[in-house]
């Protein structure tokens, strides 16, 4: 991408080069792949010379964020780091209706208590994300011009105070039905067999009112959403223009930015693995599994993800990719990606635990690890069993494997040894009577048992 000379690049150094701060924000978002469409780009660029308020919404259809949410969250983070105010918005009201965008069938009616519970959980998750992401950014970028701390809003706060007659008289009167029918999300559903309910049809008006309310009461001038939200964003801009006309036709009162709907090189939806989302909540996706998701990213996707989901500078990403290309089997780029995203989402301690467990499970010789780090990395993980030292050294390996659930039974463990499929510290167990030698203990306390490629059991002596 060729940048105008007025956007000459400079780097803030905080321990290491990491983040482009002198480049225009819109150019940086575009280069990183975070910007799909934008309204009135030149006017928005001029407006960004002053602090703005920007929001992105999340409907509480689940109790936790998944990694697909990282796109709008990272976009807000870039705004925040450049001094703008960001407003993460929970759709406590719109979540009860259901957004038809990108869906071929109508959502099941939402349970009010479940929506409220999801909203509370998401609020905490988003606050935690920004807390950790800002700490991560300070370590990478330095604390130089951040905006005010992100405070999560909930649109139920204003929607529950508006009655139907007021809404029809003051909001719906400005909506043109022919325009609403031409929205992509509406046209797609109208052509489907199920059609579109009036409830879902009105969703775009509710979201438009969100933008107007935030514009009026919190001076919010920018909405960020996925590319499937383009029609809803335009509805909000139209409502703002009608209810709060700009002083000049050359200076629109508000703007919209969409992020791409991300898919992998194979065409799968980003954030999905065998139909299951990769969650930011460690209680739903462990920190280790979160880290491993990014370690396993395809070579065709890794550079794109480094731009999207880290604060590494363009130069750093180029250098990482050059190193990766020389020895792709080492997965240098994937490991850097996994480290950056895991540290941002789960803190340095979470990253340390994930890397310790990765080394334990996949290094050919894990004996250099410290037992305390291994036990901490597996805290509350069913793959860890605490045993007495006597039992660990006196029982044959096959009995330990059966007793602590690595395999279904001791006899199954015997059969696995015969097939050379049971491993002790990543080395084949030689025979059925083999016992653990004290010299085999990692840090004199831990051993790793593995059945086949993936099933793992860590045995640690109790302190």
Automatic annotation (TrEMBL):
The family database entries (Pfam families) matched by this protein are listed as: tRNA-synt_1b
Keyword annotations from UniProtKB, A to Z = Aminoacyl-tRNA synthetase, ATP-binding, Ligase, Nucleotide-binding, Protein biosynthesis, RNA-binding
| Entry-linked InterPro entries | aa-tRNA-synth_Ic, Rossmann-like_a/b/a_fold, S4_RNA-bd_sf, Tyr-tRNA-ligase, Tyr-tRNA-ligase_bac-type, Tyr-tRNA-ligase_bac_1
Stated EC number for the protein is: 6.1.1.1
Superkingdom as given in the UniProt entry: Eukaryota
User: Which Gene Ontology cellular-component terms appear in the entry?
Assistant: cytosol; mitochondrion
Question: What sort of enzyme, by top EC class, is this?
Answer: ligase
The keyword Aminoacyl-tRNA synthetase is annotated on this UniProt entry = yes
Catalysed reactions, semicolon-separated: tRNA(Tyr) + L-tyrosine + ATP = L-tyrosyl-tRNA(Tyr) + AMP + diphosphate + H(+)
Q: What's any GO biological process attached to this entry?
A: tyrosyl-tRNA aminoacylation
Q: Which SUPFAM superfamilies match?
A: Alpha-L RNA-binding motif (SSF55174), Nucleotidylyl transferase (SSF52374)
* Molecular-function GO terms, alphabetical: ATP binding; RNA binding; tyrosine-tRNA ligase activity
Q: Which family does it belong to?
A: Belongs to the class-I aminoacyl-tRNA synthetase family.
Return the protein name: Tyrosine--tRNA ligase
Origin organism is Collybia nuda
């Amino acid at each position: 991408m060729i940048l105008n000379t007025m956007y000459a690049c400079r780097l803030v150094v905080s321990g290491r080069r990491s983040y482009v701060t002198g480049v225009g924000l819109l150019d940086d978002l575009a280069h990183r792949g975070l910007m799909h469409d934008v309204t009135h780009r030149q006017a928005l660029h001029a407006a960004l010379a002053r602090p703005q308020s920007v929001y992105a919404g999340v409907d509480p259809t689940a109790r936790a964020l998944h990694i697909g949410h990282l796109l709008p969250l990272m976009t807000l983070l870039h705004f925040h780091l450049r001094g703008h105010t960001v407003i993460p918005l929970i759709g406590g009201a719109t979540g009860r209706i259901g957004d038809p965008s990108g869906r071929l069938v109508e959502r099941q009616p939402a349970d009010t208590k479940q929506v409220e519970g999801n909203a509370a959980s998401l609020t905490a998750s988003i606050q935690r994300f920004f807390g950790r992401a800002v700490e991560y950014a300070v370590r990478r970028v330095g604390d130089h011009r951040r905006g005010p701390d992100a405070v999560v809003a909930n649109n139920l706060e204003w929607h529950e105070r508006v009655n139907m007659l007021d809404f029809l008289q003051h909001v719906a009167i400005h909506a043109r039905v022919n325009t609403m029918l031409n929205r992509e999300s509406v046209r797609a559903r109208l052509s489907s067999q199920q059609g579109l309910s009036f409830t879902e049809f009105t969703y775009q008006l509710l979201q438009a009112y969100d933008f107007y309310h935030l514009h009026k009461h919190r001076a919010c001038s920018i909405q960020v959403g996925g590319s499937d939200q383009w029609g809803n964003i335009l509805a909000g801009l139209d409502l703002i223009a009608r209810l709060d006309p700009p002083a000049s036709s050359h200076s629109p009162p508000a703007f919209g930015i969409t992020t791409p709907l991300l898919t992998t090189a194979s065409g799968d939806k980003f954030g999905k693995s065998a139909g299951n989302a990769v969650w930011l909540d460690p209680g739903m996706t462990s920190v280790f599994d979160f880290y491993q998701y990014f370690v396993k990213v395809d070579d065709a996707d890794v550079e794109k993800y480094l731009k999207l989901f880290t604060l590494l500078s363009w130069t750093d990403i180029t250098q990482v990719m050059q190193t990766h290309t020389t020895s792709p089997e080492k997965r240098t780029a994937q490991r850097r990606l996994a480290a950056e995203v895991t540290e941002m989402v789960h803190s340095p301690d979470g990253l340390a635990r994930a890397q310790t467990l990765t080394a334990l499970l996949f290094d050919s010789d894990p004996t250099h690890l410290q037992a305390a780090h291994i036990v901490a990395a597996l805290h509350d993980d069913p793959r860890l069993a605490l045993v007495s030292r006597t039992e660990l050294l006196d029982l044959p390996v096959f009995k330990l494997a059966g007793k602590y659930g690595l395999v279904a039974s001791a006899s199954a463990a015997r059969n696995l040894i015969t097939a050379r499929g049971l491993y002790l510290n990543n080395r084949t167990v030689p025979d059925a009577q083999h016992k653990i030698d004290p010299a085999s203990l990692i840090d004199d306390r831990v051993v790793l048992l593995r059945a086949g490629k993936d099933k793992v059991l860590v045995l640690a002596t109790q302190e």
